[in-house]
Every structure is written in structure tokens, then in C-alpha cells.
Write a structure and sequence with these properties.
384 residues, Rossmann fold, 2 domains, six-stranded mixed β-sheet, five-stranded parallel β-sheet, 44% helix, globular
């Protein structure tokens, strides 16, 4: 498993002196790093920066790391931001005696620190757990229900998977966030995450969410920043180029992993999911993530589009002069809508794909295609 990530890691490692693997807790970063390290020639040195013994070893980073040769793995690197200046010096040595894997569970701070200290020296790999291209279309329903965390997906049954995810949520809030420097009380952050789960797939209204929480919009933004930085929640930005229309300018919010979203809603089985009011929003978030991964599109290439008159597009991918549109329908026989025609015309889309649950892919009309999510790997070309 994690085959696609292994391929990307191999590519990055060929041209980068260091590779940073970013992803939420328990998503498989350490497993991927250990598998990769086992295949390397020469010595491997592994430092877990949540281990007090390893932290003490790196109190003087230069004296510890400079003599080492081969591959050096620094796990949970965001725990020691002061290491980045030392890493810059080590990576600039002319003879390249060592290469580095940097594993991190806090994207924003790590990216900021890395971009400032390691610009041009490090390749970045985002790891979000299993995706459809790895598990295969036959496991689509299982992946949608359980999400991409390896231990959740690989659990013996749905009950065990739900139990693992429930435990993960409790541990993440009670232990992991405080270790990342978050001082918000456990129950308050849990309440916020539960509230946010009800907003998943919707345009975010900070003021309305703050009223529901009995908090200020500033507090809500701070809480949201914490969960986005921990890579368990994502914001999809609105596209509002000047098109002569009144456009929505607030982001949409998604719980990134469908399995965690279902746990927050106490959805344990496929039958419960099928009958739940959340099912449409859940499919949208799940399918959007799979499409983005299949395309190889970065977050800054992904948008949504909506007008105050009611026209909307779930996902707009922009790379150079290419514009691709996507709608997500939990239906087996989707049809075109006025919104789709408006999006095709106003956004000048190369193509609009309506991703659906049926088994087949076919053209609905010129430029608009019904794309089976079961055939995503075959029928949707990458943007590389």
C-alpha cells in the first residue's frame, strides 16, 4: 500500500537533498519512511523528535548530525523548528555525505519554516493516506466509509474501523494538539470539530458559526487555523476573477478524511451512510479529494465557483491556461443543469466532468461528460 506515494517519494529523492513528507497524525508517514529506508544502501539514522532521548541528542544538532553519513530521518520535525538553520548548513555541504527525510504533522508552520530556511533544497510530499488509485475501484465503498487512514481502512470489520477512528479523535484532541502548542480546552475543541463536521461541504460563514459556538469570529478563525494546520480540515478557496457577476467570496470547508467525517456524525455502516442527510456532502468531499489526487493538482490550483444568483461549480482546477470543471453527484444517471452551462460559458472550461456513482462514463453534451468515479483512474488523465 501507499504505492503512489512511494513512487513520488522516489522521484523527489532523486533530485532533492532532502524530502519533507507532510500529513496528519497516523496517516502513514513513518511507515512510508521506514519502508523507503529499508531499501537504501548505506547507513540509516532515525530520530523521533517526540522521544525525549532523541530530543536530547539533538540539543546540539550540528555536533550530532554533522558526522552522520547515509540517510537521516527526522520524525515530527515541527517539534524542533530550531533545527532548520542547522539543516540548511548540512544540506549545503558540497560532497553530500547525508540525505534527509523530514516528517511533519503540522503543515503551515513547517512549510513556512522550511520555505524560509531550506528554499530550493527540499522536495515536498503531501501524504493523505490511501486513495482510490491504490486500493482499486472494487474497494470504493469501503474507502468512502472508512477513509484513508491505513489502520482504519485495513481494520478487520467496520466496527473495528469505527473504534479506531473514535480513539484517534480522542487522542488527537487530548494529546496531539497540546503537543503542537494548542492550549484550547479539549471539550471546546471537540465541540468545534463536531460543529464543523455539520458544515462540511458548505460555504463557510465565520459569523454564523461563531454564533452557534457562542464565540467570536476571531476565535472561530483561530480554531479553524489549528485544524487546517494539522491537516485534518481543508478550505477550498472561491474563484472570483472579475466576470461581471456577483460571486461568492468565502471559502468552502471540508473535513479532509471521509472516515473522520462519518465518525463525527456517528455513521458506522454503509446502510447508515446511505440514509444519512450528510451523504451528498460526504460524497462531494470524498470524490473531490480523489479527483484532485488523480489529477496531481496542488491545493493552490483548486477552487470552487459560485454566484449569488445560484450558479455554482464544485471544483475548478486551473493550471496555466487549462481550466477543468467538476461537479459531484451521488447519482448513477446525472444530467446537465443550468449551473453547468453557466460554468462552461463564464469560466471558459476545457471540459466539465460530472463525477457520479454509476458504472459508466459517457458524454452528456459537447464539453460536458458524465464520469464514473469507479473509472476515475482510466478515464481521467493527470495534469502532469
Amino acid at each position: 500500500m501507499l504505492r503512489l506515494a512511494r513512487t513520488e517519494l522516489n522521484t523527489l529523492y532523486r533530485w532533492s537533498k532532502a524530502v519533507a513528507i507532510l500529513g496528519a497524525r497516523q496517516v502513514g508517514k513513518t511507515t512510508l519512511a521506514r519502508q523507503f529506508a529499508a531499501e537504501q544502501d548505506g547507513p540509516v539514522h532515525f530520530f523521533d523528535l517526540e522521544d525525549p532521548r532523541h530530543r536530547r541528542q539533538l540539543d546540539n544538532a550540528m555536533s550530532t548530525l554533522e558526522p552522520l553519513r547515509g540517510l537521516i530521518v527526522l520524525d515530527e520535525i515541527q517539534q524542533r523548528p530550531e533545527l532548520f538553520p542547522a539543516l540548511r548548513v548540512l544540506l549545503d555541504r558540497p560532497d553530500d555525505p547525508a540525505r534527509f527525510l523530514l516528517l511533519g504533522s503540522a503543515s503551515g508552520k513547517l512549510l513556512q519554516q522550511g520555505s524560509e530556511s531550506l528554499a530550493g533544497r527540499v522536495g515536498w510530499l503531501r501524504l493523505d493516506g490511501f486513495e482510490l488509485g491504490e486500493v482499486g475501484a472494487d474497494s470504493l465503498s469501503k474507502l468512502w466509509l472508512r477513509g484513508g487512514f491505513p489502520r482504519s481502512f485495513l481494520a478487520e470489520n467496520d466496527a473495528d474501523s469505527f473504534g479506531w477512528r473514535s480513539s484517534f479523535l480522542e487522542t488527537f484532541l487530548a494529546r496531539d494538539l497540546p503537543m503542537m502548542g494548542v492550549t484550547t480546552p479539549f471539550l471546546r475543541m471537540r465541540e468545534f470539530w463536531m460543529m464543523l463536521a455539520h458544515w462540511s461541504g458548505r460555504v463557510l460563514n465565520h459569523a454564523e458559526l461563531a454564533r452557534a459556538m457562542g464565540s467570536s469570529p476571531t476565535t472561530v478563525r483561530n480554531y479553524l487555523d489549528v485544524l487546517c494546520d494539522a491537516m485534518v480540515v481543508r478550505l477550498l478557496r472561491p474563484w472570483f476573477a472579475n466576470l461581471g457577476k456577483r460571486l461568492v467570496k468565502s471559502p468552502k470547508v471540508y473535513v479532509l478524511d471521509s472516515g473522520l467525517l462519518h465518525t463525527l456524525h456517528d455513521i458506522r455502516t454503509p446502510e447508515q451512510l446511505a440514509g444519512h442527510p450528510l451523504v451528498g456532502a460526504s460524497f462531494e468531499g470524498f470524490a473531490l479529494h480523489q479527483v484532485q489526487k488523480r489529477l496531481g493538482a496542488k491545493d493552490d490550483e483548486c477552487w470552487f465557483w459560485a454566484t449569488h444568483a445560484g450558479a455554482e461549480l464544485d471544483l475548478l482546477v486551473v493550471r496555466g491556461d487549462r481550466r477543468l470543471g467538476f461537479e459531484f453527484k451521488r447519482s448513477e444517471e446525472p444530467t446537465t443543469t443550468r449551473s453547468m452551462h453557466a460554468a462552461m460559458q463564464d469560466l471558459q472550461l476545457e471540459r466539465l466532468d460530472v463525477v457520479h456513482l454509476g458504472p459508466s462514463t459517457w458524454w452528456l453534451r459537447d464539453g460536458i461528460r458524465a464520469l464514473s468515479i469507479h473509472r476515475l483512474q482510466q478515464d481521467l488523465e493527470r495534469l502532469d
